[in-house]
Amino acid sequence: MTADQASRSFVSPRQYPDRSRKLISHLSLLWGRDTCDIRKCADCGFGFADPFVAGGAEFYNLAAPHPSYPTMKWEYERTIEELSGLGTAGKTAIDVGAGFGYFLDHIKDKLFRASDIYAVDYNEAAQQALRSKGYKTFSVDLREDGFTPMKEAFDIIFMFQVFEHMDRVDDVFARLKYLLKAQGSVFIAVPNDIRTHYMEGHGSLIDMPPNHIGRWTKDAFDAVCRRHGLQLSVCEREPFDLLKFLREDIVDSFLRRAEKPGSVSEFVRGLPRSKAQRIGQAMIALALAPSRLPAWAYAARNSSTLGSALWVKIDKGA
Q1: What structural domains does the chain harbor?
Q2: What keywords tag this UniProt record (predicted)?
């Protein structure tokens, strides 16, 4: 895809023309060219952006200056279930990409003491929210020298919907192994690659770089774990939820259409933000819903693999 196509996935050029121009220019500089490819490893199925370079603070300030985070997700529930059987009393934990700390709120004082919980996030508003809740907070990349915890500092590391954003994958895993105590565990959730392929093949959103640059599979996790002397212990896909799927598909397919220059969807998406604009978008999305029936029929036949998230538990031996 081109820098212009990628930019339209994040910012409406009608609604925010100046920010759109800046984002297109930034993407071209980030990639060192005006295009980016998405490739796939024939051995492990890992999908990756080429060039394999992550978006940084400037990209996210342009593409998504006001992030929002859900308070509960399936991967949170699944992780809490797993933690409940491990015995976490007196153990330390860190959440990388913690957002406003919604997951940590579920485990504080129930599974971990607040004083044993650490958090990493770049967003300034998120850092303030995390500190206000009593979490020890870092605002630097865990791979960098500015991230100061000692070797074998944590029993548990959480990375929910973060790893797909990251480049320098071997550096990440080397750091995870360094930070984990013996018998420690990492819990990672990423987008389900099968769901991504469904979306892109059936007129829904493209999983656009440089926001997501890695498309992880079970085989890819297993390969990188073996390379670093870690063990992939559990790998599960989120169960399929029909109502959640339909809501998301209606919205995402509308947004995909709204990326097309000159379309009615693009025009309505580009109107000034208001209640009327939101109603207009909803009406168009619902009007287009019947055209999604063939895609929904495919999804119904393959529903066992189309949950939103892929969740893994990775362990470090003694």
Answers
A1: 74-241+303-315 (3.40.50.150)
A2: Methyltransferase, Transferase
